[in-house]
Structures are given as structure tokens and as C-alpha cells.
Sequence to fold (328 residues):
Amino acid sequence: MRRFRAILLLLFAGCAARGTPGLSPSGALLATIPVGTAPTFLAMAPDGRRLYAASNGTLSVIDTAANSEVVRLNTNPNSTGIAIAPDGSQVYIANLFSITLSVVEIATNSLASSITLFAQRRRGGFGFMAVAPDGRTLYIANRANRAFGIIPLPGGGGRVLRPSVAPADIAISSDGGTVYSAGCKAICTPGFVNFFDTATQRFGDEIAVGGNPFRIVLSPDGSRAYVANLTGPSVSVVDLAGRRVTATFRVPAQPTGLAVAPDGGTLYVASQTEGRLTALDADSGETRGQLAAPRARDVTVSPDGRHVYVSTADAVLVVDAQALGRGQ
Fold:
């Protein structure tokens, strides 16, 4: 129960946001797009033409050329995660107290039939997820139940595993052969990255990272995993071939959003408590620039790397990546 309450507090924290004045480099903030109420999670279409912002009970479809909302759809309340099919055909949204995924058809910007997952001891709890490159399987974390879900698409159902590392977030290799989950054992310091082989359906190596891992993303070449740790706070850099942490970057408090530029050179961190978007050199961890972003929650990057999108208390900020990098 204490763990579940902690998850609720993190999801819906008023967050004592301390957006620091004077951080914004000149010309970095291009647009502010109103969306629903926080928390808001982001997913970019593969072609970069649409951004999807899942808020509390709504999904905003954003035209990235016009920097404006195209349509706002009503979805289940308390969004906890969002993912997009690799072919760009559908968007999937998880919700805190639901055992279904909301499904949006991208071609028509309309809701489709939801996907039923599986019942748990504690209802709901599903959160961050990743879709296999072939679009046939969705992997989803369920921290409340310490569960790792494997969901066939489009049918739903699937199976649940309970590994020694309870997953908070999930990433998948470009070939679909390995799923990486970041999470905790009984005690969250240290946290771990756990390797799951999709062919054998077995968990393997566990790599110790910082405390309370919350997000995980892979470098574009698949050689590294970056893990945002709430304790510290920090980002752990994991050499996936060497199975070891090679660096730890200090970041502003409560890093709840994490993304990597398409060229692999820049790491973007959204820090909720500090109210900042930070651009880091992905090799050295040096801060390249910061932007004030009150109650910053999630972050994603356009496929061409030119724009960064960060969700805040009630909006999505559109940021010029080059200008942000000059703001150190």
C-alpha cells in the first residue's frame, strides 16, 4: 500500500514546482500548446507529423508543423503511459485504475475498441510500455503489482511475469530480441536494469544502476541504455554489450522524462520538481542548456532532431533544440 501511494503521489503531485527564472536561452521556446490536466505523457508519430499528448482523461493530437492541437479526444482518466505502433497506425494509452488500453486510430483521429489486459491483485497499475518492432507484441510495466506484462496485439490478454526486478519502465531493442526493464527489488537503492530475451521468454542479466529508476531509453545505435533515477537524482549510462554502468550524470530533482536525440549526441531530461528541461551531452554528461518548464513531466524529440517537446502542468512546450544547446 505504501508503494502504491508513492506511485499516486508521483503521478499527481502538485509538485512544489520551482521553475527557475533566467534559464531559458534566447529563442529556444517556440510555442506553448495548451493540453489537458497533468500528468501528460508524450508519443511522437514515426513520421514526425503528429505528437500525441495523453493527459488526465484526454488525448491531444498535435500538428507539429502548425504547433497546434488538431483534436482532443476523451479517454479514460488518470493516464499513466502512452506508446505508438511502429507503423504509426495506432496509439495505446494506459490508465492507472484500468485493465484496458485505450486505442486511437491515427488515420481517423478516433477511438477504436479498447484492448483488455489481465486482472491483477491490485486493480490497474499499468504504466509505461514499449511495442515490439513488428507491432505484434506490447510489453508493459505494472509497478503496483510488481509485474511485467506481455500483450499480443491486437487481441489483448497475454501473460504476466513477476521477475525479481519489478519494472517501472521498459525499452526494446531495434531487432525486438531484448526487452530492457528498469526498476527495483525489495529495496530501491540500487535499482536495476533487467534483460529479457524475447525468444526464450526468460529474464537474464541484472545491472545495478542508481536508486529508484523511473525511465529508461536506448541510444539510437542500441549500444547504450540511459536510466533516469529519482534518487540522487541522476542518469545512469549502461553499456549494454559490456553489461556495466560506464557513467552517472547528475541532473535536477525528480527526472520523470527522458529522451535521446536521433543522432545520439544529446540527452534530454525533464525534471518535475525543479521545473526544468535539461540538455546534456550524451557522452560527457555536460549540461548544454536548460529551459524553465514548470512541472515538467515528459519529453520527446522530433525524428529530425530539430525540436524537443516537453509536457508541463497544462501545456506542451515546443523547444528549438539548437537554441537550447546554446543556453549553457
Remarks:
- The first strand starts at residue 29 and ends at 34.
- Residues 2-325 form a domain with the Methylamine Dehydrogenase; Chain H fold (CATH 2.130.10.10).
- Confidence is low (pLDDT under 50) at residues 1-9, 11-22.
- Residues 190 and 211 are 5 Å apart (CA to CA).
